[in-house]
Amino acid sequence: MSVSPKLIGIIIVVLVIGVAVGYLIPSLTAPPPEKPVLRVWLMPFIDEPEKVLAPIVEKFEEKYDCVVELTTVSYAEAVSKIQAAIAAGEAPDVVYQTQGRFIPIAEFGEAALVVDDLVEEFRDQFLYPDILLESVKWKGHFYGVPFNFWTYLWAVNVDILKEAGYSDEFINSLADYDNPNWNWDTLHEILQRCTMDRDGDGEIDTWGMAYPGGENWLHPFLLWLWLCGGEPFTENYEPNFNTPEVVCALSWLKQVMEEGLMPPGSENLKAGEAIDYFKTGKVAVLWGSGGWPSNLCETFKRDNPDLNYKVIYPPLGKAGRRDTYLGVALWQILKQSKNIELAKNWIRFWLTDPDAQKFQEDYLYFFPVLENAAKGKLSET
Asked: Which pLDDT band, with edges at 50, 70 and 90, does 205 fall under?
């Protein structure tokens, strides 16, 4: 049977269309390509961080067309869990870090990415670069990028000091940085005079200060070590705790405890318990540890509206310095990251995005690290 040329043409056209559709249909019906995933581990610097951070995370996801997976790990377990994830080859891309925790990760099989290039990108914009950046430098390199900072403040209970016989003029002078009389010896005198029986039942019910002797944190002790002129590491990055300065700090704390100027059982106190002694009007002096901006600017006033306190400078220590603790939060990228450039953009975002900057002051009461950062409630306070 013969076939007309016209019919042959129609068949060819149909076949061509069928082949084309066969190629097109899979591309039309296939799922869209998966978005890159950035795995970020946090420590609980706020309640429900995943919920509170949601608007900022969504803004980042939209900007970089990605998905962010947030995981919260406790401060106590953070280092061990990060190291375990690294050993298993399942490390996250980015981890929230503090000064006391980034070094073990940098030392653990050299697992942290050196980010000198990222630090240099923003160096000229950092507030106090000599202090902020040097505090997170390790063996000549940066293993994380700071994104906010705070300092540990001191405070005194004004009512207790007045009951102990101190005048308003004296109390106000403790907030004068250039006051040479606000020193270690004056602090000792305040602790002695403010340890007393205030309700008249014959029992001591108010003490000079409370120290978290049962806490495994290092930074409460570092405050006293610095006031004695000591440093925790040598220039060669070796532990530096067999020194006269360490003896000075430990001897001071031992003396204060033995004189009964701290609540009984202070050697077993947790940090939160030591802070509660001040919040509830049971100790006169809140020294550095626990006196961070979020407490003194918001939570103490909110939770204890009758607490009458004044923020002050630390005293001149035995070494003649007014040293306190500079806290710095940083983002650390791990070498196992599958999205290193996206991880770097996460850091850039936290440094430069106005909403991310303002969040740090409004919710964390920490200062953003760059000079042009958006100002929030902490700056207003």
From this structure: very high
- Same structural domain for residues 183 and 95? no
- Report DSSP letters for 278-304, one per residue: HHTT-BSEE-STT--HHIIIIIHHHH-
The residue type of 366 is F
Q: What is the pLDDT of residue 167?
A: 98
CATH code of residue 354? 3.40.190.10
**Structure tokens that stand for 165 in this block:** 């016989």
Distance between CA atoms of residues 242 and 235, nearest Å? 15
What is the pLDDT at residue 311? 94
pLDDT at 25: 44
Question: Which residue pairs, CB below 8 angstroms and at least 24 apart, start in 121-126?
Answer: 121/348, 122/351, 122/370, 125/370, 125/371, 125/372, 126/369, 126/370, 126/371
Lookup: tokens for 318:
């035995």
Q: 230 with 325: CB under 8 angstroms?
A: no
pLDDT score of 158: 98
Q: What separation in angstroms does the CA of 40 have from each of 57, 86, 200, 263?
A: 11, 14, 55, 41
Indicate if 161 and 98 belong to the same structural domain.
no
pLDDT in tens, 311-365: 999 999 999 988 888 889 999 999 999 999 999 999 999 999 999 998 888 888 8
| Nearest alpha carbon to residue 79 among 95, 67, 64, 56 | 95
Residue 78 has which token pair? 């953070």
- Give dist(CA 300, CA 294) in Å, integer: 9
| Rounded Cα gap, residues 381 and 379, in angstroms | 5
CA-based nearest residue to 274, from 205, 187, 209, 197: 209
Give the number of other CB atoms < 10 A from CB of residue 76. 11
Asked if 206 and 343 count as a contact pair (C-beta separation under 8 A), the reply is no
- pLDDT confidence band for 4 (50 / 70 / 90): low
Range of the domain at 135: 37-150+327-380
Per-residue pLDDT at 302: 86
What amino acid occupies position 114?
V
At residue 12, the pLDDT reads: 42
